[in-house]
Amino acid sequence: MVVAVHDLGRVMLLIVSLLVFGNVLASDVSGCADNPIVSRFKGSEIAGCRAVRFEALTLPTGRWSDDKHAWTAARDLSGRVSRLVYTVPGQAGGQEVFQSYLSALKAGGFTLAFSCHGFEDCGYGFAEQLLGGVRDTLAKRPNLVSHVISAASGEGKFSFLTAFLDRPQGEVGVSLMVVDRDKGSGLSMPVVVLRVVERQQMASGQVTVDARAMSKGLAKDGHIALYGIQFATDSAQIEHDSQGTLAQMAKMLVAEPKAKVFIVGHTDNTGQLAHNLALSKARAKAVVDALVTKYGIQPDRLMAEGVASFSPVASNASEAGRARNRRVEMVLQ
């Protein structure tokens, strides 16, 4: 494996002896290549991949609570996302593969945020939640999907970690699940499910929701989704990255002094409904408070409401869908 280490603007490559840089192999699925930051275990083959230029990814930093149907702790990181699934032919077992990755990440400057092994340690619904999007990643190897899910979700034969790397050009988050071979599930070799997110701002000029676009959206549809408003995980604290969108909201409201709007918070379906209803309303109220206190918008023109997961715009079965459902909307009163 190769882990890129970034220290005070310098770039070094740390090559860990147990793992080697994963050049493209003839047996790799076409169109796939190793992530440049974290590559492959020696001899493994790419069974599937998927890359997105910008996406919000939830990285578990705690076990799965089956009672609350939610992670006990997690971090959302937005940026370039790479998903890779490897098969590991040969004699290596799942624990050998997992420990090799763990050692390489630590040696490369990553900080381990969380690790767990199997149902009792991770939570019984852990693997099912993590592998929700594996069908998309393994689109070219559909026969492998059921074996992986059965071994992990059915038998609990997996190990998992989340780790982070601080670097000047943006934080990197890694989640890694190694599913061990299981004859009963038809999985004849370990499988590595790797997700890497390189934190970055969404490139400007790609999708711009400025004051004019907000005004047009409200005039046409009566509401508009504002994905530029971001919050800390499971919190109503507005992230600093949201200031640009808040400023455009205020600009629109100043330009249209008669307009009155609802600010509506939406969540995905992760967690308990009562909690999400309170959280979505608290987030909407935080936006209203920011518009009033920082931008001087009259409070009688704004009303906060939260609807949790009652009004999805995408399926909650995938991470991409859940990311679209987590949003703030401005709705004409």
Fold and architecture overview:
There is one protein chain. The protein has nine helices and 14 strands. The chain is α+β, with helices and mostly antiparallel strands and about 325 residues long. It folds into two domains: about 1-200, no CATH class; about 210-330, OmpA-like domain (60s Ribosomal Protein L30, Chain: A, 2-Layer Sandwich), CATH 3.30.1330. Strand 4 and strand 5 (about 70) form a beta hairpin. It comes from Halothiobacillus diazotrophicus. Keywords: Cell outer membrane, Membrane. It is found in: Cell outer membrane.
Features:
alpha+beta; 2 domains; four-stranded mixed beta sheet; 333 residues; six-stranded antiparallel beta sheet; 60s Ribosomal Protein L30, Chain: A
Summarize this entry quickly:
By secondary structure, the protein is an alpha+beta fold.
Proportion of β residues? 25-35%
Distance between the termini: 56 Å
Label the structural class.
alpha+beta
Instruction: Tell me the strand order in the biggest sheet.
Output: 3-6-10-9-8-7
Helical fraction = 25-40%
Bulk shape: elongated
Number of strands: 14
Give the domain tally.
2
Measured on Cα atoms, how large is the radius of gyration? 22 Å
Unreliable sequence segments? 5-24, 203-208
Mean pLDDT: 86
Number of helices: 9
Give the SSE order as H and E letters.
EEEEEEHEHHHHEEEHEHEHEHE
Main sheet overview: 6 strands, antiparallel
